[in-house]
Amino acid sequence: MHPTTDGGAPRPAMPDLAALTPEQVERVERLHRDTLIFDALTTSVLDRDYAQVLRAAGVDATNYTVADTSLAQGQLVQDNFDMACRKIAMWLSLLEDLADGSGPATSVADLQRLRSQGRFAVFFGFQNGSPIEDNVDFLDVFHRLGVRFVQLTYNARNFIGSGSGEREDEGLSDFGLAAITRMNELGIVVDVSHCGYRTTMDALTHSAQPVAVTHANMRALANTPRNKSDEQLRALKANGGVVGVKHMIGDMVSKQAADTTVADLVDHLEHAMGIVGLEHVCLGTDFSGTTASMGTSDAEIMAIRGRWPNAYLGSRSRPRGFQSIRELPNFTAELVRRGYSDADIALIYGGNMVRFLEQVLGS
Fold first, then answer.
1. Fewer CB within 10 Å: N-end or C-end of the chain?
2. What is the reported pLDDT for 302?
């Protein structure tokens, strides 16, 4: 969750694009102009300027975090039912103000309609199941309010199960099993990105619908509990779900965090594809912030991470060549350089998520 801020610094150079032929550069530009791009996880502060940044990068839709775990007056707070409802009310009001360029989406049909109008589609998502508290009926309320993604846990334990930062992972509770059943019935995506190993495996086994890892990287390449192991990826494939690579936190990409580049991220994508296949990967950048004064600061992020030392290892850094969503073309350029076809890239950037959402959310 909560990488560093995005738009306050000057836009970095784009070394990967510079290494391409003029024909390849034109292809990257065309892909960003014509391809449906769905970012499976965004935590940025959304305003008119940032909506334009997203659209300029070619992003058509995202799962936007509207409830999570945050730092308030030095204390970690897991959102409860009341807090989540207040945040959703704020988001609905915000999207009314941005209605000329953005709009809420609860289905693929909404996404396609908004895209045809040149508008950005916002799916509401939770990065913590804590707002459900201990009442599965609250899921019905949130579904009516437009929530379509619920990450079962953040790094800590809640009524549903254990997060990736817990010293002992006890997996899903009986309540957690009931919550997944209700999410399946309603058409809410079960997200296990921050879940502990056993909680993740329990969800993949219990869910009757495909499960999403909206934003994580691969433990085989960076051994931190926040990343997903090959065994978990195999279970995800059997479940029919999707896994999205995230741009951030250097120690989730490489042991040499400061040396991480956009090419390292594509390595994680390719490792996942080697296990789950091309049809089950996506992009979940987890970019946050619009200006240097907005979003979660580095100090706050480190304070949040410090609460769960088991979940993260080493230092944090942003990969060179992919330090903001503005540089998504660099990721595309690396895919082009490695020989991926337009059809392959279209699946990675949006096609797989569209198919997944059609199955989970229904019509």
1. C
2. 66
Per the structure, the complete domain to which residue 126 belongs is given by 15-361
Is 8 a member of any domain? no
Alpha helix (H) ranges present in the chain? Answer: 15-18, 22-34, 48-56, 81-97, 108-116, 137-144, 174-186, 197-206, 230-239, 262-276, 298-307, 328-337, 342-346, 352-361
> Could you tell me which residue, 53 or 311, shows the higher pLDDT?
53
Rounded CA separation 353/240 (Å) = 12
The answer to whether residue 230 sits within a structural domain is yes
In a domain, 6, yes or no: no
* Tally of domains within the chain: 1
Taking only the tens place, the pLDDT of each residue in 267-320 is 999 999 999 999 999 999 988 765 444 455 666 666 666 777 666 655 566 778
Integer angstrom CA distances of residue 22 from 34, 263, 288, 308: 18, 20, 32, 46
Distance CA 167, CA 189 (A): 27
Rg (Cα) of the chain, in Å, rounded? Answer: 19
Tokens matching residue 239: 């479940």
CATH code where residue 63 lies: 3.20.20.140
